[in-house]
Amino acid sequence: MNKILIVDDEPNILLSLEFLFKKEGYQVLIARDGEEAMQLIENQVPELIILDIMMPKVDGYEVCAYVKKNYPKTQVIFLSAKSKEKDLQKGLALGADRYLTKPFSTKEIVAEVKNLLN
User: Fold this and answer.
1) Which of 89, 48, 94, 104 lies closest to 68 in space, CA to CA?
2) Is it the case that residue 118 has pLDDT exceeding 90?
3) pLDDT (tens digit, 9 = 90+) per residue, 57-95?
4) Distance between CA 67 and CA 62 in Å, rounded?
5) Cβ count within 10 A of residue 85
6) Does the pLDDT value for residue 2 go beyond 90?
7) HSE-up of 54 (CA within 13 Å, CB side)?
């Protein structure tokens, strides 16, 4: 069973994505900020991370750089309200595998996850 980590400081997004991916058969971990995410990653390396950018303590860019340096096989999908071209380019330059913007389609995010993990 593939393990997914969802990192977002918005409780509604965390809960809805957790429910969605558990229903799809994935093992789901959640973190409310980048610092919590990095601690979780060290203990339970996920196959894929869905990652917000603007979070307290440690932002998503820093988490992505950390993951790609230490766990290069872990896939990263940015899911962010930051929709400018420069934000997308920065995310992809740090090694993100996909960059989706909020608001998002649940069908699209499920399809992207399945595509990256299969």
Assistant:
1) 94
2) no
3) 999 999 999 999 999 999 999 999 999 999 999 999 999
4) 9
5) 7
6) yes
7) 8
Q: Give the residue among 14, 3, 9 at the shortest CA–CA distance from 75.
A: 3
Q: Which domains does the chain have, with CATH numbers?
A: 3-117 (3.40.50.2300)
Residues in the chain: 118
**Nearest-10 Cα torsion for 19, 8, 95, 81:** 100
| Contacts of the segment 41-44: beta carbons below 8 A, 24+ positions apart | 41/5, 41/66, 41/67, 41/71, 41/74, 44/3
Residue 83: CA count within 13 A, CB half-sphere: 6
Torsions phi, psi for 93 (to 5 deg): -65, -30
DSSP states along 3-58: EEEEE-S-HHHHHHHHHHHHHTT-EEEEESSHHHHHHHHHHS--SEEEE-SS-SSS
Report pTM.
0.96
